[in-house]
Amino acid sequence: LSTTLTDLIHDGEQGREALIGQLDEGLDVINQRCQGLIKFTNAFSTISKLPEPRKEKINTSELLNKLQVLFRQQMQETGIDFTYTVLPDAGTLHADQYQIEQVLINLVKNAIESFEDEAAQKKIRIAAIPINSMLRMEITDTGSGIPQDKLDQVFLPFYTTKADGSGIGLALSKQILYHHKGTISIESTPAKGTSVILEIPKS
Q1: Closest by alpha carbon to 67, among 149, 128, 12, 158?
Q2: How many of the other CB atoms lie within 10 Å of CB of 27?
Q3: For residue 35, is pLDDT > 90?
Q4: Cβ neighbours of residue 162 closer than 8 Å, sequence gap 6 or more
Q5: Which among 80, 88, 137, 145 has a CA at the least distance from the CA of 112?
Q6: Which of 43-52, 97-106, 141-150, 177-186 has the lowest mean pLDDT?
Q7: CA distances (Å), 174 to each of 52, 112, 121, in order?
Q8: Hey, which bits of the chain come out as E strands?
Q9: DSSP structure string for 74-127
Q10: How far is CA 93 from the centre of its chain?
C-alpha cells in the first residue's frame, strides 16, 4: 500500500484533490494496520498463547472497506474483481478488531493465492449476513479450490499445501474464532472455488 501511494505521487495523473483523498485514506489504513500489527506481534508469541479478545462494537462496512483499500493495488495488478456486501442488520459485530482484521487478511491472501495465472474469471466476494444473534461472513473465491481429501487438514497448525506457506494462517484463524465463541468452516470444489464461512456473535 505504501508503494502504491508513492507511485500515485509520482505519476502526475491524479488531480490534487483526488490525490490528497487517496493519500489520506491510504495512510489512515497503514497507520491502523501498523498499530494492529504491533499489538498482534507483541501478543501472539505462539499460536497456543492467544490473548483474550478485547471486544468492542465494530462497524462491518468500515472493517471491510479497510480490507478493500489494503488489497486494492494487488487486486488491480492481478486482475481480481473484489467486492463486498453488507446486508441489513449486519452493520455491526462485537469482536476484537485487530484479531478479526488479521483473520480476514489471512483469508483474502489465501483467496488471492488460489488463482491460476491463466484463470479466466478471478473473483473474490465477501458477504456479511445476519443469522439470528450471529454475523455470518462468507469469503468466496473462484480459484482452484481444495481437494476434498485435504479439507480435514487445512486447520491443522503448520499444515500447508504451499511451497512457501507457514501453515499458521487458518490454524490461527480458527483459534481466534474459538476465543470469540464463533466458528469457521470451509466448503470447496476443485477447479471451481472455495467459500470460507465465519460466524461471529453480533453482541
Answers
A1: 128
A2: 13
A3: no
A4: 113
A5: 80
A6: 43-52
A7: 14, 20, 29
A8: 56-59, 81-86, 92-95, 123-131, 134-141, 183-189, 193-201
A9: HHHHHT-EEEEEE-TT-SEEEE-HHHHHHHHHHHHHHHHHT--TT-S--EEEEE
A10: 16
